[in-house]
């Protein structure tokens, strides 16, 4: 009886097995709709993308918060076109300035700022803020 029951289970799996291939019939208009949606997403999200890879000048790194804010005020007075950024990475504060797309663009400011702060100034790779470009679509 056990043998008969096991044989029925074994052969029933073979009778109800499914094939391994699937055929999909897709309307070619689906690809056109997907391309159109990609274009729409590109246009609508363009303004929300405000960062890109670029360079900043790290002016000073210190655990003294007042020293960082004094340097920020001094740089802002001398170079109002450079936007200052203060980052806190325990236990140090870091003052970074500017949004430069290339190192060559940052170099003139680096030379000027290195006269004010002769030590601890670097051009660093960072995520920078950018203003979205208007397209002529």
Question: Topology, pairings included?
Answer:
Layout: H1 2-15, H2 29-45, E1 51-62, H3 65-78, E2 84-89, E3 92-100, H4 103-116, E4 122-129
Describe the protein in words.
- By secondary structure, the protein is an alpha+beta fold.
- It has four helices and four strands.
- It starts with a helix and ends in an 8-residue tail after the last strand.
- The mean pLDDT is 83.
What multimeric state do the chains show? single chain
Strand content: 25-35%
Written as H for each helix and E for each strand, in order along the chain, the element string is HHEHEEHE
Q: Enter the CATH topology name of the domain at 51-129.
A: Alpha-Beta Plaits
Q: How many helices in DSSP terms? A: 4
List low-confidence stretches.
none
* CATH architecture assignment of the domain at 51-129: 2-Layer Sandwich
Helix/strand structural class: alpha+beta
Short key terms for the protein model shown above:
single chain, 137 residues, alpha+beta, Alpha-Beta Plaits, four-stranded antiparallel β-sheet, 4 helices, 4 strands, 26% strand, elongated
Give a concise summary:
This protein has a four-stranded antiparallel beta sheet with strand order 2-3-1-4, with helices on one face.
